[in-house]
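Re: tetrahydrodeoxyuridine structure - here you go.
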Amino acid sequence: MAQMHHACVLDPKCVQKLVLSSHEAKKFAYCPYSHFPVGAAVLTRDGKIFSGCNVENACYPLGICAERTAIQKAVSEGYKEFRAIAIASDLQDDFISPCGACRQVMREFGTNWDVYMTKPDGTYLLRTVQELLPASFGPKDLQKIK
Ligand code: THU
């Protein structure tokens, strides 16, 4: 049977703090080309929060999303086990949804953790990495070659 993944239950205070951190991080977005600010905040297994924003570039393809900024900040400080990530944008009527590249980068660090896709009013849609990127390719697949 396929392995099931469930969103882990985070204390509501903890969720609120993570969501707020993603909205705070959005204020630092460097997005002079898209004018589309995004913030993200990742919660490590041991309760630390790393936040990030999108950082664009005059050479357009070099721009990086908020989610990857946050994850790379965490990993580069020695944290690679995550409970959740919250994402924030200025879209009033839509829950911000992570791009495919960011889903793959999340997946690198496991499929069984939570993605809070938020609106500016703090409401959110909750999905696991597994739900956002089913049938994914990951680190273990590289070890299957004979
Ligand atoms: N962006 C993110 O940072 N995260 C998302 O989830 C969606 C898109 C950024 C990339 C680019 O700087 C701008 O938003 C417009 O695509």
